[in-house]
Amino acid sequence: MSLPTAALRPWFAASTRCSSRTTSRSVAAAVRCQSTATASSEPRRLETQADWEDFRLQKGKVRTLIDTFGEYGSTQTEETTFHLRDSLHKPPRNATVSALLAAGAHFGHASTRMNPNFMPYAYGTRAGITVIDLDSTLPLLRRAANVTRAVARAGGQILFIGTRPDLKPVVQKAAERLGPRQGYYVGERWLPGTLTNKREFFKDQNLDSVRVTPDLAIILNPVANVNAIREFALENVPTIGIIDSNVDPRLVMYPIPANDENARVAELIAGVLSIAGREGVALRQEDLRNQVFVEDKKARQRPFNGRRGA
Amino acid sequence: MLRRQAVFSLRRCYGTTASLRQAAPSSQASRLDDLRAGILGRTQQPTANTEDADDDVRKFKLPPSSPSFYTARPVFYDQVAQLERAIATANNALRRAQLLPLPAFARASLPPIHPVWQTKEEMTQHFQTKMTLARYRKVTKLLNELNDYHRIANTAGVNDLANKIYSIVSLFESSKKDAFLARGKRKPVVLDVYGRSYTVGKRKTSSARVWMIPVQQQESSSAPLPMTTILVNNIPLNEFFPLPADRERITRPLKVAGILGKYNVFSIVRGGGTTGQSGALAHGIAKGVVAHEPELETLFRRAKLTRRDPRMVERKKTGLAKARKRYTWVKR
């Protein structure tokens, strides 16, 4: 074991250090000297501002290279390339069967646990799991999107509920898309009595001046939120929900048969629904503008029975 | 037809994607400003909106202003969401500045941080909800992460970003932070207008109030050895402490520092006996020397001269002749 080769292969020095008992003392001593030598070649601590600036420049060399030559290479840039976060931040407007398949929306629960009322939406069984028929999912999703768009267009309050830690950013983003006065979310536990015991929960707000009951509720994990669904039923709030194969689809008004365990499916479905809602909000603005325009036109067309002149 | 209309109206509202990106704030720092404003202005009054739904009763009601209204704790969840967004923004900004991810050796170069967050009661007022331990821990976890980003930005010299992060973090810092961090530390001794230090030394039940002033050196008439005066209760040292052991104890701090002829000492000593008074005087002199020459602080601490000797006379206990002495054991 010569010194130069050990220096070139620090992993080699490490392995000999481990088994130093079997080697001779002089070799072990040499190995120990080498390990201290490799330790000194590690970067020093950063003490001054200049050290930190050098460190940042060094680190930024690769990024600078990419940025410089990025213009001359492929047309795929940071903006256009695929990211894992795109399913949350840039969902599609319309879902397709292939997108649902890729997200794993067709995986149901165990066939032994299948709810008999779910039969119309089941494709079959494979490996003890109910496979959900995505050809039935797609039109139901489109129907739910139409409902969302219509409610948003009418100025309704839409509430997104996703009470799992991985669903929280999904519902937050979905509510954000609808804007401050029409999009709402519940990312953590739904407190039972929020709607049926309003006086207790919303003491500080003047309940006579604030609209508490939402106009539409979209629930991404309805099995865990049966309390909320019951309250919505009592308060006559229409509900949309992701229904898995072990759940009765009549639980919500507009069921969407899909896998409720997967965050990707929830991102896709909530994305589609929130984009439809955003369209509804925009259509509402359009309607209001048209209304103002029409009223103005009518006012101008009325017979002029006022004073004449300037 | 409807879809085309919808898309058309959507484009009119939001513009094309290119203009969208331009309209968005280009720098992360300005986004942090907005988040700070959002955290400060936590309760927003809903603005009047007369053009609402068809229902007569609901027509005059306003929709709730906070998106987390249905959690029944809107202020808390909104603030937490703002903090999470601030963390994401700061993370992004640090990545662009090539400061994240930080390798181990760079992280070891960062100075230690000692955050002192508001207590649960203070945060209850801030968030307008009862702060349980779980909620408090969640908030402090987010604040610690943000504080860590501030430390990185500050150490690396990216001052603009560091200031903006600090402006958010400081909203949650306790008002008693300085007091808390200074706990257990000695108050620094200041010299008065004449250059005198005033310190107090204690030993057993004695206390010594010590004033020290540097000796004025006369160049022409200076003796080979500089002469100083040590007065104890207006009596010179050798008269007040006849025993050499006591004198040795008193002059030890000056000998250790090698400044025997440098300071004049005047002290008032009360309480206890000779050993206690000499120990108290030594303690006071050591503190006075450190006040005049702060570089000697480490030396004196290592020599245990600035340490207040905690040994006090132990009380006598019942059933024992003295503190520890037991009566003679009798077999029968």
CATH topology of the domain at 97-292 in chain A: Rossmann fold
Q: Please, how many domains of chain B?
A: 3
The helix-and-strand class of chain A reads alpha/beta
Low-confidence stretches of chain A: 1-6, 8-16
> In angstroms, what is the radius of gyration of chain B?
34 Å
Mean of pLDDT of chain A:
88
Oligomerization: heterodimer
Query: Roughly what is the average pLDDT of chain B, rounded to an integer?
Result: 87
Assign an overall shape of chain B: elongated
Helix content of chain A: 40-55%
Per CATH, the superfamily of the domain at 97-292 in chain A is: Glucose-6-phosphate isomerase like protein, domain 1
Q: What proportion strand of chain A?
A: 5-15%
Percent range of helical residues of chain B: 40-55%
**CATH C-level of the domain at 97-292 in chain A:** Alpha Beta
Query: Quick one: biggest sheet of chain B?
Result: 5 strands, mixed
Do you know the CATH architecture of the domain at 97-292 in chain A?
A: 3-Layer(aba) Sandwich
Low-confidence stretches of chain B: 8-26, 43-54
- The helix/strand class of chain B is alpha+beta
Label the overall shape of chain A.
Answer: globular
Helical stretch tally of chain A: 11
How would you sum up this structure, described in words?
The complex is a heterodimer of chains A (310) and B (332). With 310 residues, chain A is α/β, with parallel strands linked by helices. Chain A has helices at residues 3-8, 10-18, 25-40, 49-70, 86-89, 97-103, 134-153, 168-178, 198-201, 226-234, 263-301; strands at residues 107-110, 122-126, 129-132, 158-161, 183-186, 216-219, 239-243, 254-257. Chain A has a domain at 97-292: 3-Layer(aba) Sandwich (Rossmann fold). Helices cover 47% and strands 11% of the residues of chain A. In chain A, helix 8 (168-178) links the parallel strand 4 (158-161) and strand 5. Helix content of chain B is 47%, strand content 9%. Chain B has a 5-stranded mixed β-sheet with strand order 1-2-5-3-4. The interface between A and B is large, with 53 and 40 residues. Chain A: One of its GO terms (biological process) is translation.
